[in-house]
Design a protein that fits this description.
With 211 residues, this protein is an alpha/beta fold. It has one domain: Alpha/Beta hydrolase fold, catalytic domain (Rossmann fold, 3-Layer(aba) Sandwich). The protein is 35% helix and 15% strand. The chain has a six-stranded parallel β-sheet with strand order 2-1-3-4-5-6, with helices on both faces. Helix 2 packs across helix 3 and helix 4 crosses helix 5. The longest helix is centred in the middle third of the chain and has 16 residues. 46% of the residues are buried.
Length: 211
């Protein structure tokens, strides 16, 4: 099968990257090359990691380069395009990403110990009030979950609907191309077949499947 470009998968807070394995396999089965970008979610700031991601993307083959980010990884991708952009074709999908900020993150970040736990990336995202409205440089699709099972609920006050960690409203970003809510939790979206199918659909067509 002819490759349809490279999909860069970017993991979320505290994650090692291997948790995207099943999603990567499904993207490969659909004809995409895949690679993972691993970054220090706690020890480095949002801008520094965005610069690292830009340098990583520049080393990839000169064909369409798509980006798929889970949770904080999606916010990092958006920050990449706020700072750099990537001068070739491709689309972006964010999965459960707190693009408008994160209530659990704010609660932890408000205290010195909690700030050390969530780290510099989340602190920077919250300090700037979330991501800027999308500039339309590329088509951007956002998938949110509505099964409220996750660690974020332990801190309380998470707006409904939510995926247990991120509220649906926190995933919305002005200017995004498309947004869809699927029946999954924050983590299960990484191994959900319907989520993978919607990711493939957006990478192919720039829109989610509403059928």
């Amino acid at each position: 099968m002819e490759a349809k470009g490279t999909a860069v998968l970017v993991h979320g807070l505290w994650m090692p990257g291997w948790e995207t394995w099943l999603l990567r396999r499904r993207l490969e089965a659909a004809g995409y090359r895949t690679t993972g970008f691993v970054y220090p979610t706690v020890g480095c700031g949002l801008d520094e990691n965005a610069d690292r991601l830009a340098a990583f993307a520049e080393q990839l083959p000169q064909d369409p380069v798509h980006f798929v980010g889970h949770s904080l990884g999606g916010a990092l991708i958006v920050r990449l395009f706020e700072r750099h952009g990537v001068g070739r074709g491709g689309r972006i999908v964010c999965l459960g990403s707190p693009l408008n900020g994160s209530r659990p993150g704010r609660l932890l970040d408000a205290h010195p110990l909690g700030r050390r736990i969530v780290g510099r990336c989340v602190h920077d995202l919250l300090a700037c009030g979330g991501c800027d409205p999308w500039n339309g440089m590329r088509e951007l699709g956002i998938i949110a979950g509505d099964v409220p099972l996750g660690m974020g609920r332990l801190l309380g006050g998470l707006a409904s609907p939510n995926d247990g960690t991120v509220a649906v409203e926190e995933t919305r970003l002005a200017g995004a191309t498309d947004h869809v809510v699927l029946h999954c939790t924050h983590m299960s979206m990484l191994w959900s077949r319907p989520v993978a199918e919607q990711v493939v659909r957006f990478l192919q067509a720039g829109r989610f499947d509403r059928a």
